[in-house]
Amino acid sequence: MRPALFLDRDGVINRDHGYVHRVEQVEFLPGIFDLGRAAAARGMPIVVVTNQSGIGRGLYTEADFHRLMDWMRDAFAEQGAPLLAVEFCPDHPREGLGPYRRDNPRRKPGPGMLLDAAAAHGLALAASVLVGDRASDALAGLRAGVGTRILVGGDPAEAAAAPPGTLLLPSVAAAASWLAGGGPGRPR
Predict the structure, then answer these.
(1) How does pLDDT run across 7-47, given as a tens digit for each residue?
(2) Annotated catalytic, 10?
(3) Residue 185 lies inside a defined structural domain of this protein
(4) Which of 106, 160, 169, 170 has its C-alpha lying 20 to 30 A from 154's C-alpha?
(5) Domain that holds residue 119
(6) Residue 8 annotated among the catalytic residues of the structure
(7) Residue 136, SS3 per DSSP
């Protein structure tokens, strides 16, 4: 089993403009490819874990999501940071339409996407790193047993709601520097 780098998408990989689902909406955040390359240099595969309730709300389709993620996979690979897997949850317990209106343990803050990825790819969660921008990301990581949970972006409300033990960093670029400089086990 090997450790992985788990990345939330909107707010970590790309700027969160709200329900991003087309290539022209993507604005990669500074440092995201540096973070990916730092993980690759440590032998850590990269897994995207993303709630996508825009699908469940009828704002875009699963095909739209997969088309965008195929493009994003290519962008990461071109930058020397290939994605091992993309896990997503289209459901929403209150605002989902039809079959998408349900509680789903894969939806963060539930741990399902992380647990499923670990089981499918032989990932060591306790030695892994998760980078998110919301407290729900960090809580999902805690519930799944991810050893290092990082919150980026500097939102005071999200930082205050993050579970104890969450490492707060100002940006994705800072997370890249942290991982490149030693990552887990490095003094904080």
Answers:
(1) 999 999 999 999 999 999 999 999 999 999 999 999 999 99
(2) yes
(3) no
(4) 106
(5) 5-180
(6) yes
(7) helix
